[in-house]
Every structure is written in C-alpha cells, then in structure tokens.
Amino acid sequence: MVQASFNIDLDTLADDVDSHTWLIRADGLPAITYNRVLPRFIDLLDRHGVTATFFVIGRDIEANAAVLRQLAEAGHELANHTMHHDKQLVNLAADDLRDEIVECDSRLSRLAGGPIAGFRAPGYTVTPRVIAVLRSLGYRYDTSLNGSLAYSATKRLFKAVRLQDKSYVTCQPVADHFGPRNPYRMGDSLTRRDPAGTIIEIPVSVIPLVHYPFVTSVLLPFGLTATLWGLDRLIARGRFVNCGFHVNEFTDPADVAGRSDRFYYTSKLMRTPLAERMRYFDTLIAAIKARCEVVLLRDVAA
Ligand SMILES: [Zn+2]
C-alpha cells in the first residue's frame, strides 16, 4: 500500500492580495482565515479520523496560538512555512533568508513544545541556500520541490504577463524539475540522492502523463473525476501521495463579503460554491484513506 500525506499551507487571505499595491485593507484577513475558514478543514479531517501536516507562517503564530496548540495536541503536525511568506525568499540576503526560517522555527517549536521537523518554501521555490539553513537547524525534511512542468509553465506565463508586479512569483530552475519522484535523501544538489544526506526531500507529487501537481487548488477546477484519475496514476506507479491543500480553498464568499474579487487565487476557487468544494474534498479524502496508508510528513522522514 502506498503512503499518503494530507498537508495544508496556511497562507492566509492576506497572502493572496497584491502585497505591493495593497488593493484592500488586509489587517483582518489572517483572523478570518484562522477563525472562519480553517475550522472547515479541521472538521473534515475529524470526520474522516485522519491527521495532517500544517505549514504555518510564523507571523500568525502569536495571534492564533490557541488554535495551533489544539492542532498539535490533537496529533497533527506543525511545520515551518517561513516568518512572512515572502515570495522572494530565495532572493533575500543571506541573513534575511536565515531569519525568515529561524524566527518561524523558534516560535513554532516553543508553541509545539518540541523540535519542528519540516519546511515548505513559499511558492514551492527552494535553493541550496534554503536547504543549508534547514540542515543547520537539524530539520529532517523539506517538501518544496515541485517537478510539475504544467505548474512551472503556468507560473512562467503568469510572471510574463503580469505587468504590474513581476516580483510576485519566483520560479525554480527548470533542471530542478527532473529529480526523483518519491521521497529521497538529498545530496549536495537539490535533485541528487545521497544515502548519507541528513535532509529528506518529499517532492510535491506530480501526476504521470499530464504532469500536474497533486495540489487541490490546481486540480479542483478540473473536477473530481480528473483528480481521482490522477490519484489512480500515482498509486499505480507506487508514488507517495503528497496531497497538498491551501486553506483559502475553504473560503466562502460570505467570509470576505464585498471584496472577494480582490484575491488572485481565492476568487477563482470561490467561483465553485463552497458546498460543492466540500463534497470534492470529502470524496477525495475518503478515496485516499481507503487506498493509502495515511501518515504525517514527519513520519516519512523518521
Ligand atoms: Zn504558502
């Protein structure tokens, strides 16, 4: 039986507006995400009796400590998603890059009462400099490498056509899209295996043939049948099912009344009614639970 992980990036609604032009007042958005949106995902996990890995932005920890502590106590895993979710993380000066990872780590480990095992970079863009910081902190895994050619092409297109803010996204070098497809011990280059490596890379699952990432915000618009077909392809090839969610997929237009068109990704997802999205997630989680051994990412890197 192949292994699978449910994991979710807690990018709040504030991370989905234009961070340079600030089209809306975004102060209350992280609170909306944590108090109204996130409970829908937690309910879903509870109903299916499964646990998940939550990638937390350090900036949001203090204000949402009670919710996060409850997650840890319920057996979920808290992992590092940097301090501020800067989409230019990999281009920061060495000290600033390190601070982004270390500050989130120290707040999160204090809250969880123990060491944090894993990391995911904003926008799935990672470099050897990032991995070096993770190694120095004793991290066991990174789960940022996204070898999807379809995702990469979309990102490059987006970067090319968005005239106003070209720095909104950073892209992974194309050569990094051809690494191992299952979790591996990382050597001195991102895509090279090394049995002596201390960091395990748990790559984003890429659906064979179509090369789409197994990330629900990408798959949801294609519908359930296409998503389950992708799951079949992964399982048939014995691939680890790294099922990635983003919390904003659980947003209802009523949560952000009057300004729901201001979000890049969330507004597109919200064109599908929340009830329909919840049925999609419900069926997907049931299908994965029925066919895979569900684990936390830290267990993969144990
Ligand atoms: Zn993120």
Radius of gyration: 18 Å
Text of the CATH class: Alpha Beta
The set of bound ligands, ions and cofactors reads:
zinc ion
Low-confidence stretches: none
Tell me the total number of β-strands: 9
Number of domains: 1
- Mean pLDDT value: 91
Secondary structure: helix percent: 25-40%
From the coordinates shown, what is the CATH architecture? Alpha-Beta Barrel
Percent of sequence in beta strands: 5-15%
Q: What is the SS-derived class? A: alpha/beta
CATH superfamily: Glycoside hydrolase/deacetylase
Order of helices and strands: EHEHEHEHEHEEHHEHHEH
Major beta sheet summary = 5 strands, parallel
Q: What is the overall number of helices?
A: 10
> What's the CATH topology name?
TIM Barrel
Task: Describe the structure concisely.
The chain is of the alpha/beta class and 302 residues long. It has helices at residues 29-48, 65-73, 94-112, 128-136, 149-161, 216-219, 224-236, 266-269, 274-291, 297-300; strands at residues 3-9, 53-56, 77-80, 118-119, 141-142, 184-185, 200-201, 241-246, 293-294. The radius of gyration is 18 Å and the shape is globular.
